[in-house]
Amino acid sequence: xxxxxxxxxxxxxxxxxxxxxxxxxxxxxxxxxxxxxxxxxxxxxxxxxxxxxxxxxxxxxxxxxxxxxxxxxxxxxxxxxxxxxxxxxxxxxxxxxxxxxxxxxxxxxxxxxxxx
Length: 116
Known about the structure:
It is a single chain. The protein is flat. The protein contains three helices and three strands; from the N terminus they run αααβββ. Helices cover about 30% and strands about 20% of the residues. It has helices at about 10-25, 30-35, 45-60; strands at about 80-85, 100-105, 110-115. It has a three-stranded antiparallel β-sheet with strand order 1-2-3, with no helix packed on it.
């Protein structure tokens, strides 16, 4: 018989998820992970809380990483590149599609979106 996993304080879990969602505006690299754990806000379990702690450890380890824009001459043109990719009915379980957008300005990532 499968053991029941202990639940976590939902208020603390929701506060952490809310803070992480706010942080996703400037840290697109954690967005997918935050979206995955935010699915369990109504009934968070210990494994979900451990996943949030892992995201927080990742953030703590990369505090000094950031987006750098190269200095440019006054009359040089801005260089912006956009990429997109989609996967029609690619999820094997629910057959839902996935689409990804990435925009890069002067060699630095400025926008990233993943939608299912």
